[in-house]
Design a protein that fits this description.
Elements: H1 6-31, E1 42-51, E2 65-73, E3 77-86, E4 93-100, E5 109-114, H2 118-121, E6 123-129, H3 132-139, E7 143-149, E8 157-160
Antiparallel strand pairs: 1-2, 2-3, 3-6, 4-5, 4-7, 7-8
Length: 164
């Protein structure tokens, strides 16, 4: 009878157990990770569909359309994303204003978001730091947004904030 050495037996079975040990090591490593999350949260968000057919601008034949998204964070940062889906020539958007009150009449400008990227892409994104008073006025949801252009400095498109 031929003797089988322990060395040959061990070398033969090691490759069979290698995947098992690899899975156990990966599982252990993945369970040990610590994830840090942001301590800032979205306190208010709204999407505005801006048109010229409203009481403020009163342009029922205007074809310009824009979408503005606002995210107000608990740390007083306001993120914004504004883009035109339709922009009638020769208008070039210049800024976005957050204005106190509803669109029935012009109100006090709460925040002016100027962007130089409008002229190249017809869109603008960014963030601004708000004062406590600006944040309070936005959270009251009694405001409207107006996008101005070089051809229409009083407003190209606008929309009211919803009160829900």
């Amino acid at each position: 009878m031929k003797k089988i050495s322990l060395h040959i037996l061990f070398n033969f079975r090691l490759p069979l157990f290698a995947p098992f040990f690899l899975c156990v090591a990966l599982l252990w490593a993945s369970c040990k990770k610590e994830y840090t999350t942001s301590h800032e949260f979205v306190e208010y968000t709204e999407t505005f569909f801006l048109t010229g057919n409203n009481p403020l601008i009163n342009d029922p034949n205007g074809t310009s359309r824009a979408t503005a998204k606002l995210w107000l964070m608990t740390n007083n940062e306001l993120y914004y994303d504004v883009y035109f889906t339709v922009l009638e020539a020769p208008n070039v958007p210049t800024n976005l204003q957050i204005v106190a009150g509803q669109m029935a009449s012009p109100g006090e400008v709460i925040l002016l978001l100027e962007s130089h990227t409008f002229s190249n892409t017809n869109s603008a994104q960014g963030k601004v730091e708000l004062t406590a008073q600006q944040k309070e006025r936005i959270l009251a949801k009694n405001f409207h947004v107006v996008c101005q252009s070089n051809g229409r400095p009083n407003g190209l498109v606008a929309a009211n904030a919803t009160s829900n």
